[in-house]
């Protein structure tokens, strides 16, 4: 009996510890909020039953191992919840791993609640537990966790043709035993990657491999260490350093053994000839381990490759008409012979048909006829990548593409293969190159036109303040590989010294011949893009790029020397630096930025910034996933002295930021300040009221921010305020009503904000409040006073595609 009392008391104590942990962290880790809220409900339903267990343990006659299992589950659950609370923002990629564990814990507790206790009730007839089965809803056995992460496959396009038969045939090979490496081959533009994605998202394939499906896009010079690091990061594990490729293989084997409860599928997409040895190293001898390779090259080492053929005439016609939006229209173009002529001319290549269809969408029959006559002159169906590129190049000329749109299309080649391009970066470039309005609206229309013509695709990851407020930081642009190759080819016409844009892709330390031919090579291009890999040692040869106005640096390393020739680049107006390495990079000679005396826009991504360099003409600064707290605390250049003419500042996912420097509040011209997803930021400076020209303040998803300072009432020009997902925000300043120009407030996810200050009744220009239903009730009471107020409660719009932004 003593043992029974002790064990019953332990159950109660462990239960209280678990419930306390959930309540303490639930609102602080927004990425796990839904499942923690669910777990809280389950625990609260279980609370009275735990009391009965403690009181009637002896009568329950529960087997010792049953009770011990419950105690262990709750102990492990407490540790899991605490571990989730310590996951840093850059480990958000591990969400599926921890989310699954939390779901399993909740399901186990529900099983105990519904079935175990119900069984004991039947066995003992204990009256106090008769209605246990009614306490909670049915067990959530159909929890579905989307595969999201660094190496997770993106969903295939919603509309595809001609691939279902291939899926069924290849699926048989993946689901059965036997061959461990399957090579899928076809010419460029025939849909290899799309087919691979369809396979990954097939219900039977997902049922077998679960979340052990990894999708990696190769480069021409793939790196085994980087591949392995990405897999570790994808699984939410500490990323190790590797002494050698052999060390990387050994640690990869340990990783795959560790996660190998289910079979494993590794997809290697767009593998180039010469990578066979690397595939061999990845082909570990593990049970139920499959590798699917897609390649333009018929790699024979692993057996007969599976060939994907061009589309049939029927499928090609369907795809063309879908791309031209004819399938759902009443147009009689479908009945015309020239549809068949177009299909015949492009030989069943999906990419060409998508491009043609997009160009002719909404056009009258006469335009279709003219275009057919134009591109049918000597046109032959392509039978190689080179032929298809030539054909696409001709298409670009005859599609009626405006010169500005063609220029914008070619600019997409400035960024690395298989990376999402931030729309904000393109806007920065085009505003300066084409002298567009600084708000970016016109530049964004160019992106939409590229999307309409199927020359690129727009991906919107998270909708924050929305496009109506000219906010595009969550818009990205993707592009088919072959179209990127076309953009580079079109940009590379003519001698190096005559090109408008110069694209340099350095593999290892091999600089292009033109760079090393002369002791000092003059570069006359307006745009210069330089991409380097993790093996580049930053040993630059000297060039003279004095005409360059836009400089794009794509790097993949922990340490990076800015090129010395930046000291001569006095005409540069836009600088875009992106680090695609899994950890932050450090500049060894940051002082060189000070040479860019005419720099107006700068976007820096995944860089550690120890201090700010003085840039007196800088008007827009964007810091994404950077370590900047050291720079904020540095006194070498106060931020107000470093950027005295700054108009817009964006700080996103810089989660080492604890507080903002006071000097930021003394940048007089500042109009837009966006500090988003900075989860450690707990307060704004009291001096924020000094920003008398501030018009837009975004604080979205600053989850530790508890309140707004009283001085916020001094922001007389502020028209837009976004505090959405500031889950710790518990009050607005009493001076909030002094925001005399405020028109819009975004405040979804402010769950702790239980009341509004009485001064909000003075917000006579307030037109729109976007919030949750609970917060809407607070504002509804003010409608008789604020006659123009419109309250919007939008549906939750969550899209985690942003996780693939840096997929390597």
From TrEMBL:
InterPro entries: LRR_dom_sf (IPR032675), LRR_R13L4/SHOC2-like (IPR055414), NB-ARC (IPR002182), P-loop_NTPase (IPR027417), Powdery_mildew-R_dom (IPR008808), WH-like_DNA-bd_sf (IPR036388). Residues 53-80 form a coiled coil. Residues 1-151 form the RPW8 domain. Keywords: Coiled coil, Plant defense, Repeat. SUPFAM superfamilies: P-loop containing nucleoside triphosphate hydrolases, RNI-like. One of its GO terms (molecular function) is ADP binding. It holds the Pfam family RPW8. The keyword Repeat applies. GO terms for biological process: defense response. Belongs to the disease resistance NB-LRR family. This is Disease resistance protein.
